[in-house]
Amino acid sequence: MSQNKPLVIVTRKLPDVTETRMMELFDTRLNVTDDAMSHEDLINAVKFADVLVPTVTDKIDADVIAHAGERLKLIASFGTGWDHIDHHAARERGITVTNTPGVLTEDTADMTMALMLSVPRRVTEGERVLRAGDWHGWGPTWMLGHRIWGKRLGIIGMGRIGTAVARRARAFGLSIHYHNRHRVDGETEAELEATYWESLDQMLSRMDIISVNCPHTPATYHLLSARRLQLLQPQCYIVNTARGEVIDEDAMVRLLQEGRIAGAGLDVFEHEPSVNKKLLDMSNVVLLPHMGSATIEGRINMGEKVLINIRTFVDGHNPPDRIIDEDLLPA
Ligand code: 8YV
User: Residue 226 belongs to what domain range?
Assistant: First the structure.
């Protein structure tokens, strides 16, 4: 790290308050146009930066890290998921990686509930009919969806977000089931009246709604594989606000087309920002453009975390949100 203010390169437009404070504290290069950086732009950035502040849209792979200059010591990512960063390559180069956990938990859980309600109750479908001028009045058997009260919700990944989803879902009358790499503590399990399934296969075949809330790691890539998706019951809905890569998206699309699952609420996709065209034609799916954490409050909190991580690191301390190897364990 240089003697003067560290050079911080920010890859995307961040909230004004974050950018302003960053300008005050560090020698900061902002991205005022907000155009996503190309692979080449990222390589150029890491050659000179002391600190890189990327987001989920920047693939910081081994090649980018191989081009890092001697000065690059910290990658302070703006976001909780860090699957866009080759953490092993960074560690081998002595580069610390941080993220922004905790501050987007409630917002993401809210969006999960929004999808969980929207798909079975046909919310966006009904809205589309109305806007198209095709609503000709109430009908006793028209636009019927399915009740969620009393149904079984299976949460994959009972970390902060999964637990926040469970709390909300309880209030909507869902019974909570979960699969996680560790069983949660007894108090939380009792509070949520949650049933733990060590076997994901066993859980999947019994649920009415599946919510994906685990991070994307090598161990969770296609965790919902073609084989596992076939275990779901035909009335089951899938909700994903975590990462598209956790589900074999082609296999899910096939099951949706064949009517072998009831529907899906998706905020994330396997090949973002491109979305499988077949999904666009389906009425039983609700599709959102990765908006789970998109609140002004959440983004400002995320910015604050990035600032704290950089400042702490620059001052010679362990940044609070340093990514540690435990996170690489399977979900
Ligand atoms: C963020 C997310 O907005 O934090 C995450 O893991 O998926 C998003 O909600 C995004 O990552 C910002 O980089």
Answer: 105-287
